């Protein structure tokens, strides 16, 4: 089964009809419905942080998203723990030539750990790290 990492921008675009990538994210969601998705608590934290400032509708949509993903049989949410944080911080420290966020670094490490080469992401940082960003 095809396994793909789902980044913050994908979830935001999927739920926000005003996002410039909304239609692309919807089409990818349909075409990849049989794929197995992996995301992380850090990614979902970014989604909820983004929606927190967009009003009650988006706050509720973000909560529904996270609760739905937790129950979905083809989606795994990788927990954040101390070791994952330290490994992400190490990559963050070692790649000061890039503007990668800590969440990016943790995501890249997860992708390497699971042998994932594709991401539902628009972020150029995924391409800089050697992955295929499917929303680009």
Automatic annotation (TrEMBL):
MF annotations from Gene Ontology: RNA endonuclease activity
Superkingdom assignment: Bacteria
Record Gene3D superfamilies: 5'-nuclease
Protein's UniProt name: Nucleic acid-binding protein
Domain PIN residues, every copy: 4-131
Gene Ontology BP annotations: rRNA catabolic process
